[in-house]
Amino acid sequence: MSGASVKVAVRVRPFNSRETSKESKCIIQMQGNSTSIINPKNPKEAPKSFSFDYSYWSHTSPEDPCFASQNRVYNDIGKEMLLHAFEGYNVCIFAYGQTGAGKSYTMMGKQEESQAGIIPQIS
């Protein structure tokens, strides 16, 4: 590994029960590594687009071909991080976002089959 390396990943989670009951609208769109945000106050305005190393669409169900599973996130981020740690490099995942954004789900997952997050899969 030559030089320092920082990778940035974003993930959109499914609506929680409160958001579903309020019939919330998803204002995020993802295509490849590009994430776009629609202004809910002015939906006719052009979306703001941002590029990241990884843009994970987890808003729908696993049946959606664009759906990013826990396993995919681990394979993209966790495996490489573990490899670098075994090579003696310092590694860190910095999970950032507001309360309820899905940080714990990504890192720890759920106790359901195929729902383990990055940390349990590394162990």
UniProtKB/TrEMBL annotation:
UniProt superkingdom: Eukaryota
GO BP, sorted A to Z: microtubule-based movement
Alphabetical UniProt keywords: ATP-binding, Motor protein, Nucleotide-binding
Chain residues that bind ATP: G97, Q98, T99, G100, A101, G102, K103, S104
GO MF assignments: ATP binding; microtubule binding; microtubule motor activity
Ranges of residues in domain Kinesin motor: 5-123
Protein family membership: Belongs to the TRAFAC class myosin-kinesin ATPase superfamily. Kinesin family.
Protein name: Kinesin family member 1B
Organism: Homo sapiens
Gene: KIF1B
